[in-house]
Each structure stands twice: as C-alpha cells, then as structure tokens.
Amino acid sequence: MSEQNLVWRTDDTKKYYFGTELIGYGQRALADFDISRIALPYLRELRDETEETVHLGIEQNNKVVYLQKLESPQSVNLKSRIGGKLNLYSSAMGKALLAKKTYDELDEYLSKETLKPLTKYTVTSIADLYDQIETTKKRGYSIDDKENQDEVVCIGATLEKNGIVYGAFSVSTPDYRMNSKRKKQIISYVLETQKKIEQAL
C-alpha cells in the first residue's frame, strides 16, 4: 500500500497516514455525493413531468454506476438498481459521457472495451458508435434506442460545470409509450432539467 501511495509512515513514530493517492478518491466521492444531493429535487420534478423512470449515474472504471433511480408511477419493468452498472457504449447516460471525452480518451476506452450486443439493436461497430457520439455532441443529448434493454428507450444528458463532468441522467420509457411527439417532449424536459441542475452546481 505504501508503494501505491495509499498510505505512508513516519520514520520516527512509525504511525501510518492516508497517502496522496486517496485524495482523488475522496474528492470524487464528495463530488458524487454533491451531485446526487443537488440533482435530486430536479430529477424528481423531471420524473413527475414525464411520469417515466429517471436515473442519475456517474462514470467509474469505464462503466456507468447508478446513484439514483426514481421510479415511474406507471408500470414498467426496468433492470436497474442503485449501485448497478451499465456499459458506456449501450446506454444513454454512457453515450452522453462518451461525448464529453477527447478523441484520445475515446480511443483508449475502445481499446479496452469489446462492444458486445445486449439486444439486436446494440451498436457493435466502432464506426457507428463514433457516429452516435458525434451526433450526441451536436444536439446535446443522447439516445439509447432499445440498445441496452429490449423495448426500453432512454434519453440522457450530462451534468457539467466549469469543464468538470459530474455525471449524467436519463429518462427511460417503454418503447410502446414513445412516439415522435413524445420524444420531442421528453428531450425538451431533459434539456431543461440539465440547465437547472447545472445552474445549481
């Protein structure tokens, strides 16, 4: 642990102290806690406006980790739980987070990640994923169109302030409740919620 700077020991007293490597983890944990606390009232409002399930997540080790799940008042079967993980490449929150990375960071991520199909709609081509990421960058929101779970569509966006990406959130709805008018409405709600939370950060 000493070699990894997780702890250090004084020569005179032989006592151990937390090392510098843990500082980043502490700051990250604090940021995660703050984003959850700050975002929650706005995410509840988004859930009530859309009557769909709303998630909040952060990126850890090339995955999205759920911090919050606000259930839809309507019946829906979503395979998600707080603390659960998602692929970046197949989820709305993940693709929103990928759109904030540099090309070098994307190349590094894709060099370690295999794009495995979770449904018949999952993007498994690196070229197609890059196209989706570019589209996400231009329009400011991402879409998971039944790519992570059959018959579930998600619209997501990141939460960023002063160049720091704190996480991402999404609205998830069964495909049968989605049409072009409904999609535009949810996108509008997502972008408005993004604006409110980022102003509160």
From TrEMBL:
Coiled coil stretches, renumbered: none
PROSITE patterns the UniProt entry points to: ICLR_ED
Segments crossing the lipid bilayer: none
Cited Pfam families: IclR_C
Residues of the IclR-ED domain: 21-201
Official protein name in the record: IclR family transcriptional regulator
